[in-house]
C-alpha cells in the first residue's frame, strides 16, 4: 500500500502548532527537563490545554496523513474519537494495548479507538518502518485488536497533535468529542469517567435530534 499523500496543514493544525510553540516550546526548549520550575511549566500546560480546547482537533485530518496498518479502517462518522500515541519499545504502551482493545470492543459503534504508532516520538522523526510494525503486531495480535495507523515520515501526528497536547509521556491518549479535546493523558482508570460522560452527552444529543 503506498504511503498517504503529502497533505498540507489545516487551519486548525496551524493554530495548534503556533500556540504550542508560543506557550510551551519556545519558553522551555533551551532548558533541561530536570531544571524546569514545575509551577511555571504547569501553568503553561494548563494555558495551552484551555487554548487547545478552543481551537479543537480534526481527527479526520490527522488520520488522513497516517498509513493504515491493522484493524478496522477509521470511519469519519464517529463524534467521539480516542487517539492513542504509542511505540513498540514502550512497555507501558504494550501493557495498555489489551485494555484499549477491550475498550474498542466494549464501545464498538459508539466511538473510534485509533492507535498512532511513532517509534521516534521523543526524538528526531525517522522514516516509519511498516514491515517492522506489521511483524510486531503479528506477534501481539491479541493485545492490539483495535485500529492501528502509522505516523508518516514527517511525523505529522506527533508534531501536530501529540507534542502540542502537552503530555510528557506515552502511552498518551487524546479524547476528542466533536473536534474538542476533552482529555489528554494516560489511558488509566481516571480517564474512563470522562469517556463515559462524553458518550452519554453524545448519545443524549443524538436521541434529542431524532
Which segments are poorly predicted (pLDDT under 50) over 5 or more consecutive residues? 1-5
CATH class bucket: Alpha Beta
CATH fold label: Glutaredoxin
Overall 3D form: globular
Number of strands: 6
The main β sheet shows up as: 6 strands, mixed
Tell me the number of structural domains: 1
Helix proportion: 40-55%
Strand order of the largest sheet: 1-4-3-2-5-6
Please state the second-level CATH architecture: 3-Layer(aba) Sandwich
* Assigned CATH superfamily: Glutaredoxin
Structural class: alpha/beta
- Using only C-alpha atoms, the radius of gyration works out to 17 Å
Question: Counting H and I runs of at least 4 residues, what is the number of helices?
Answer: 7
Strand content: 15-25%
Domain Thioredoxin: 52-207
Subcellular location: Cell envelope
GO biological process, one term: cytochrome complex assembly
Organism: Mortierella alpina (Oleaginous fungus)
What would your notes on this structure say?
The protein is of the alpha/beta class. It has a single domain (59-209), classed as Glutaredoxin. The protein is 46% helix and 16% strand. The chain is built from 7 helices and 6 strands; from the N terminus they run αααββαβαβαββα. Strands 1-4-3-2-5-6 form a 6-stranded mixed sheet, sandwiched between helices. Helix 1 packs across helix 6. The radius of gyration is 17 Å and the shape is globular. Mean pLDDT is 82; it is low at 1-5.
